[in-house]
Amino acid sequence: MKVETKLFWYLTPAYVIFFLLYGFWTGWNEPVGAIALGLSVVFWVMIAWYLGVTAKTIDGIRPEDDRFGHQDQVAGHYGHFAPYSWWPLWLSLACAVVFTGVAVGWWMFVIGLFMLVIAVVGWVYEYYSGPHHV
């Protein structure tokens, strides 16, 4: 994590310079961009600080930081994924209808919400019926 911490701390002055250049370039009359860049600097510093504190609490060297580390050192349990599940497809299509409904009209948004509820419920309760019943 020390590499990530250094990366964030070393790039912080560049983002501060971008913030100041943008502010002077617009004459500080355009508040949205200046606020966005200023908050980006604050968030960037928060991430750098968090990574630094976390790096100090870790004992030893992470496999990612070890020059001679192997990929199998970080392998672990990533969770259980549903085999041959169609629900993620319907969930993504429902999300597409919802987001399209925001741009097109509220009637389409409501239809997308119904689709979204059905897809989420179907995906959550997938293992309570069918061939993969638990």
Structure write-up:
It is a multi-pass membrane protein. Associates with subunits I, II and III to form cytochrome c oxidase. It catalyses: 4 Fe(II)-[cytochrome c] + O2 + 8 H(+)(in) = 4 Fe(III)-[cytochrome c] + 2 H2O + 4 H(+)(out). This is Cytochrome c oxidase polypeptide 4. By secondary structure, the chain is mainly alpha-helical. The protein folds into two domains: 2-68; 87-128. 66% of the residues lie in helices and 0% in strands. Helix 1 packs antiparallel against helix 2 and helix 3 (87-104) packs antiparallel against helix 4 (106-124). The longest helix is centred in the first third of the chain and has 27 residues, at 31-57. The radius of gyration is 23 Å and the shape is flat. The mean pLDDT is 89.
Proportion of strand residues: under 5%
Q: Which consecutive residue ranges, at least 5 long each, have pLDDT under 50?
A: none
How many independent structural domains?
Answer: 2
What percentage of residues falls in helices of 4 or more residues?
55-70%
- Anisotropy-based shape: flat
Secondary structure tally: strands: 0
**What is the structural class?**
mainly alpha
How far apart, in Å, are the first and last alpha carbons? Answer: 40 Å
Number of helices: 4
User: Biggest sheet: strands, sense, closure?
Assistant: none
Order of helices and strands: HHHH
Question: Average pLDDT value?
Answer: 89
Rg value: 23 Å
